[in-house]
Amino acid sequence: xxxxxxxxxxxxxxxxxxxxxxxxxxxxxxxxxxxxxxxxxxxxxxxxxxxxxxxxxxxxxxxxxxxxxxxxxxxxxxxxxxxxxxxxxxxxxxxxxxxxxxxxxxxxxxxxxxxxxxxxxxxxxxxxxxxxxxxxxxxxxxxxxxxxxxxxxxxxxxxxxxxxxxxxxxxxxxxxxxxxxxxxxxxxxxxxxxxxxxxxxxxxx
Length: 205
Known about the structure:
Layout: H1 3-19, E1 24-30, E2 34-40, H2 51-54, E3 59-71, E4 75-83, E5 89-92, E6 100-103, E7 113-117, E8 129-132, E9 136-137, E10 146-150, E11 154-160, E12 164-171, E13 176-179, E14 186-187, E15 190-191, E16 201-204
Antiparallel strand pairs: 1-2, 1-3, 3-4, 3-5, 3-6, 7-8, 7-10, 9-16, 10-13, 11-12, 11-16, 14-15
């Protein structure tokens, strides 16, 4: 292997590593992100055990997209943080009562994936979440109200089962990216078809 090729491969590997990050959030009991802390790197459908600590939270630091909910199982949206570039975002906060908490999509945002959300009345990213990392997904059971794309991946969306019907392309160069309801979305100036069925399909290309 030539030195030039080796140098090129090292640069590519470095760029990939530098662009990758894991979603995490740390809560602190003093302003300025100090004192007693708890770090989450997992989806938490029930935060009952952490209520004594969370009640005293006055600041946090986070990477990635996080959503907090007043009820268990990701209902009644109350808190969010959006740090899509991998830099640690910190702020002082009066934390609302949260009984569930999760990041959007996979933990490692360099993973090519497409996530869909059943949504709730107050949040497109509440309720049931399904994340797909394979080349395709078929008939996942509900009309999605929100989507999250990771890994800078591209996907084709079909309005019917078995990859038929109207197709719409979604892509992003960002490591993590989200969109609101598929029913009233716009992509590249073209309106996405009004999708009402339960058979939305996705295929990565």
